[in-house]
């Protein structure tokens, strides 16, 4: 049985399961960040209470921004999964996956450039892929795994769709 004329129902379910796993990974990243922020806050409060009990002064530095970052870009996996639930919207999920991959790779490069100290004139010139490699962490490699599996699988289905649409059935006059 086919989910549509290009993808079998079994393949569609497995592809949707991979997209769901990618979204669950995103939720785990967010929950790990929330736990980390909570633990850091508790540690700081305990340290402040200990300093007050010992009669020591607590040094505070200004913190204008947030001290945590939620990977909001990874929530595109929710939209990819939702688009995969409907087989007629397969092209939408493919375009979302391509957009997700491009923005994720560019974001790693921007993360590297934003983390450098001293500005451009004091830093050695580093090519784009080396910037991406230097900025990536452990969770980024797992995200790249999910992105690449979804991307290559969807590209293979798109190529199958293209080949089947280009093949003409011979018609007798």
Overview of the structural elements:
The structure is a single chain. The protein has 173 residues and is an all-alpha fold. The protein has one domain. It has helices at 9-53, 76-85, 90-115, 128-135, 138-166. Helix 1 (9-53) runs antiparallel to helix 2, helix 1 (9-53) runs antiparallel to helix 5 and helix 3 (90-115) packs antiparallel against helix 5 (138-166). The protein is elongated, with a radius of gyration of 23 Å. 14% of the residues are buried. Mean pLDDT is 76; it is low at 64-68.
List the uncertain runs.
Answer: 64-68
Secondary-structure element series = HHHHH
Strand coverage percent: under 5%
How many separate structural domains?
1
Topology:
Layout: H1 9-53, H2 76-85, H3 90-115, H4 128-135, H5 138-166
Helix pairs in contact: 1-2, 1-5, 2-3, 3-4, 3-5
Short description:
The chain has 173 residues and is an all-alpha fold. The protein contains five helices and no strands.
